[in-house]
Amino acid sequence: MKYKINIGSILLKSSNFLALLISFIIAIFIQDINFGTFIALGALFFYYYLPQTNHMGIKTICLCGLVGLFSFLLISTTSFLPWLTPLLLSLICSVFYFYNKLWNLKNPGPFLLVMIACFAGVNNALNPYIIIKSLLFIVLGIIIALSLALVNEFIFDFFGFEKSIDKTKPMKIRISRIPSNLLMRSFFYEFAIFLSFYISKSLNLFHFYWAVMACSAVLQAESMPTIFKRHRIYLISTMVGCLISYLVLMMPLSLITTMGLILIFNSLIYWKMATNYLVGNFFTTPMAILFAKLSSPVINDTSILSRLIAIIIGTTIAFITVYIVSYLKNRLVS
């Protein structure tokens, strides 16, 4: 049985690598790297796939993909109103966070949703043609991820590889009783996302959405001890990641070299994140820097400092938010 599980693990890691590789090949083929990064962004939705009974992994990646596309479209069409972007982003992510926890879905949570929505909110001068074109490229990336997930699902079923037990609760939009604790956490999650977006953008940080993504990642923790541990780990791993990024940016980076390094870092993240959160996060910073370099080749080592500041802001806001939630929860109980 261990042999089968190992084969399944290798299959998933290979598929994650292929999803990004195929998106990069298409980007090179169409000779448009800026829009090609949107294909890669959609391909990252493979992270939402986990082989589960009742084909829940396929349902999850479809659900998250649709929510991601809706978020991108909504934020893009309203990004000409800067004050509205953080409000919509935080509201969408809060609702997704609420139902993600309510339904007990196994996935990275709103993290990629935050990323795709922030990409839409970065540019406040998008025209309908660019919005539609960007959306179609994201759809293509999600189709690549979904296709590979279906191949994995078929292989797991055909060879009888062991899947995770589906513990998802019934997916009902209307609920008769709203858990007060979850409602409070969702509200503060929304507030933290809004605050991290607003502060980082007000400081004119390069790629300010890094702060929002860091905040979202840390807020996935369920308790105060876990959030404190994640906050510490995220800061340590970011410092190591900044050092790796500095060494990488010293290299003569061609387009192929940059894509190759992204593929390597993405594979290391997918491989280690679930088993060692600290080591897995070593590679998120260089991957984020190189992704930014694809669309903006003039990026230099000053972006590393912006990344570090954004992570400190995002994780600190998340830490304070969870502390307040824990305090209020204890007061209510007492």
List the keywords.
334 residues; mainly alpha; disordered N terminus; transmembrane; Memb_transporter_dom
What's the topology here?
Elements: H1 2-30, H2 33-43, H3 56-78, H4 84-102, H5 111-122, H6 128-159, H7 180-202, H8 209-218, H9 224-249, H10 255-272, H11 277-281, H12 284-295, H13 302-333
Helix pairs in contact: 1-2, 1-6, 1-10, 2-6, 3-4, 3-5, 3-6, 4-5, 4-7, 5-8, 7-8, 7-13, 8-13, 9-12, 9-13, 10-12
Task: Please describe what this structure looks like.
With 334 residues, the protein is mostly helical. The protein folds into two domains: 1-166, no CATH class; 180-334, no CATH class. Helices cover 75% and strands 0% of the residues. It has 13 helices and no strands. Helix 3 (56-78) runs antiparallel to helix 6 (128-159) and helix 5 (111-122) packs antiparallel against helix 8 (209-218). The longest helix is centred in the middle third of the chain and has 32 residues, at 128-159. The termini are far apart.
